[in-house]
Design a protein that fits this description.
single chain, Aminopeptidase, about 40% helix
């Protein structure tokens, strides 16, 4: 039997009315189990958001968009009004956004920094949605709520900065809701398909396999011992200093990750954290830290004492790469996400690449037209220069 348009319209309205969206200000307004059951990412858990809120590591204002079906939480979009961040703010990432904000301020508008729809320090933007839900309707309702919040708080831009090429919902629908897509960054991931570390090595090309074995041997012969540390609370100052060593070397300034951050991470998320410590003659020469949730491991940060650690002992790859892989195999981890550096080396060692895209929306109609024109010209130029 054919359904008429009135029937279809009524049916759609009834489906929409099943859901309601609220904007919540702290993670404690959401039940821990609700968010963790929807998430498959260590950066999208109650424990991680609680750590950020209690340590006040970055100057950010949370805005959790939560979708309810009755009293049940069926979807969550974590987002943050971003004043400062560990690496760069979104305005630093896209300087033209700062330019448009400055133009608006000169015209007499007092604007709030962008609303960033992702988890701080993560290179993913995602909406956590229950499997039985109507994803398009939920995304539409969240988009409307974002528009409402941006209008109320005088936020000029909202953005999903790191949408995975594999995220069909966001890739196919954000443009419908007024977001413009531009290339973002590329990261690496590894699906764990081996029963042992030797099995992993056997899957690689001969030269790569021999290089890895040589790097592991040299690391051990240099006297470096790498162990997993469950109680890292007492090492908070050491971890902060070691990470700042790395941060200073690559960015010319100290990291924002103070000892308090590591203490709060331990208090709130110790069961989801894997810390690997490298020691040489009783001294800590380096560490790496990963987040784990539902059999997915995210490589997060590392740090080193460059006075004690040398390039020839290969501590970096042993502690940031080989040890997490060995641990993942032993613990039944299904996937590891790595950061976006040294992609070619990671590819040779078994990683696959994941492209991400930034989706950006201007919430002022006139400036939106100017921004879209600017981005389209910029996009055409980048494509032309790549030919």
């Amino acid at each position: 039997m054919m359904l008429n348009s009135d029937h279809l319209g009524k049916n759609l309205r009834e489906r929409i009315e099943l859901y309601k969206v609220e904007g919540l200000k702290t993670i404690d307004e959401i039940e821990k189990e609700s968010i963790n059951l929807l998430s498959d990412d260590g950066f999208f858990t109650y424990e991680w958001f609680k750590t950020l809120e209690t340590s006040k590591t970055f100057e950010i204002t949370p805005e959790y968009f939560v979708v309810y079906k009755g009293d049940e939480v069926v979807a969550i979009l974590p987002s943050f009004i971003e004043y400062t961040s560990q690496y760069f703010t979104f305005e630093d990432f896209s300087p033209w956004i700062r330019m448009f904000s400055e133009v608006s301020n000169r015209l007499g508008f007092s604007l709030t920094p962008p609303l960033i729809c992702h988890s701080p320090s993560s290179f993913h933007s995602k909406v956590l949605i229950g499997k039985t839900c109507d994803e398009r309707i939920i995304l539409s309702l969240i988009s409307e709520k974002i528009n409402e919040v941006c209008k109320k708080k005088r936020i000029l831009f909202s953005a999903f900065p790191f949408v995975s090429e594999f995220d069909e919902l966001l890739m196919e629908n954000l443009s419908i809701f007024g977001y413009f897509k531009i290339p973002s960054m590329q990261t690496a991931y590894m699906d764990i398909e081996w029963s042992s570390f030797d099995d992993y090595l056997a899957s690689l090309k001969h030269k790569v396999r021999e290089n890895i074995r040589r790097e592991i041997r040299k690391n051990r012969r240099s006297g470096v011992i790498i162990e997993k540390k469950n109680d890292f609370y007492s090492l908070s100052h050491t971890l902060s200093d070691l990470y700042s060593n790395l941060f200073m070397r690559h960015r010319g300034k100290r990291s924002l990750l103070s000892p308090l951050f590591f203490e709060e991470l331990y208090e709130n998320a110790k069961e989801k954290v894997r810390v690997f410590i490298a020691e040489k003659e009783g001294e800590i020469v380096g560490f790496s830290l990963c987040l784990e949730h539902r059999n997915v491991l995210d490589g997060y940060i590392a740090g080193f004492d460059y006075d004690l650690q040398t390039k020839t002992d290969f501590t970096y790859f042993n502690i940031c790469y080989y040890t997490p892989i060995r641990t993942a195999i032993e613990e039944g981890i299904k996937r590891i996400h790595f950061r976006g550096s040294e992609l070619e080396l990671k590819s040779k060692r078994g990683c696959k690449m994941e492209k991400t895209y930034a989706f950006i929306k201007c919430h002022n109609r006139l400036l939106n037209l100017l921004a879209l024109s600017y981005l389209k010209v910029k996009d055409k130029r980048s494509k032309f220069s790549a030919v």
